[in-house]
Amino acid sequence: MNISSEFIKDGISPLQRKKFGNEFQWGVSVSAYQIEGAHDKDGKGLSIWDVFTNKKGKVFNNQNGNIACDFYHRSSDDLQLIQQLSIPNFRFSISWPRILPQGTGQVNAMGIAYYDRLIDECLSLGIEPWVTLYHWDLPHALELKGGWTNRDIVSWFVDFVAICVQQYGDKVKNWMVLNEPMVFTGAGYFLGVHAPGRRGMSNFLPAAHHAVLAMAEGARTIRAICPQANIGTTFSCSHIEPYSNKEKDILAAKRVDALLNRLFIEPTLGLGYPTQDLPALRKIEKYILANDDKLMKFDFDFIGIQNYTREIVKHSYFTPYLRASIVKATKRKVPTTLMNWEVYPSSIYHILKKYDAYEGIKKIYITENGAAFTDYANDDGSVEDHHRKEFLQNYLKELLKAKEEGVKVEGYFIWTLKDNFEWAEGFHPRFGIIYVDFKTQQRTIKASGWWYKEFLEETNRME
Ligand code: GAL
How many A from CA of 248 to the centre of ligand 1? Predict the structure, then answer.
């Protein structure tokens, strides 16, 4: 389907920035391990991803982030590109082992200096930094002590957060505590397909509970050091629908929704874990100590929603714990991205409505949305990724619909600035609005990037 022509057919004029309002925040997101490279430079310690990618067969073609986009050495040039595209907000993460090579203890002055420069350069270019404190690159030294399964991680993490906020808090106003706790605990500690590659409920449940505690304690630490900071945390969310109207599929969809969309937000809001709809979670109680109900709560200024797709769910006797399975988009013969995720723009609308309905959520930013496709650079240097452009416009159209219905959505960040290391998938799914030739490190702005620039500059032209 040609999505642009659908726009015209609907009688909807091309998306206009001004419809989102002047306060709406526009940005682009990245994460440290996926772009920085320099994995052993200037005193950085090993992260669990450095170790995981070294194990054969864990990542597509045994690729790793040792060099990635070499952002560590090319940050100035990449920030210039952000400025060239008129993108006002840049979301990036701080690598914990670059600041604390052993996870705790000795601080690495060169790591501190690197992010200090990065933040200063953002500010001098008029780009607002949005900092994520944990985007999955746990110091390996801490994984050797149990990583997220060890309750001590809450105090290890809080110490790291305090160092960052004391260091950069006078310059950084917007902080996100964790990136997608469901993904790093689910893929990393239950399925074993992400670092550190552990499996099973006995790893997943304590990791999940400690992530919930770290999320709130980390936020309290920021608040204590910088009372004025805009504090959030980000969640992966997919709109869930049952495969049929049969009760067993409806219940299966509820279980998956509880796991993917509710497990981490609800304890934060003081609602506890969604064990009623997902009985397999009950064993998490084993890890909950006396005062934890209070410690799990935090009144976030905003939550970051990261949405890419929807999932269709059906009952399955064969899936342990969940008794549910996802009906793959490829089987449903629907349009997909290179990740085999369904292109389903109204997913973002439904998810926004769902989260907006929670009492206690003050403000929502879409901190990630985007798509991977097979992109290539033409001989004339252009990258014609019109499919991505259409994808972004159609999701934004759905976001706008939710906003116009009163949903408190105040910002949107594209995933991602440039093609990078896509975790277990390696380098082949290209998500960027800037193309990266990984042999030469040359950057080329894609058609989607030029579109974003034009879109963002519209207000200036119209005022
Ligand atoms: C998110 C993650 C990002 C990026 C993106 C695309 O789950 O936060 O790091 O990989 O998905 O898959």
Answer: 31
